[in-house]
Design a protein that fits this description.
mainly beta, 5 strands, 49% strand
Length: 101
Amino acid sequence: MADETKAVATAAPSTSERGHRRRIEGVVKSAKMEKTITVEVSYLQKHAKYGKYVKKYTKFYAHDEKREAKAGDVVEIVETRPLSKQKRFRLVRIIRQATSV
């Protein structure tokens, strides 16, 4: 009987597994640093008093090992261990490349 409860308790998935990292899509604003890109993620937030939606954004620094992302690309980044003072994400894939005029 004690063995059954022990087996059930160990079968539960851990929340600290690698698969539970935050994934974010955004636009590359800068690729001028060495192996680092700046990704801007925009979102709408409702104003508390007036109810109007205001566009806001957050900047993330992401590691780009192969230096393949360019400014204007839509990319997917994933949370990782701290790589520097501000860099906490790494590039997973380029969803859509920027169109040049």
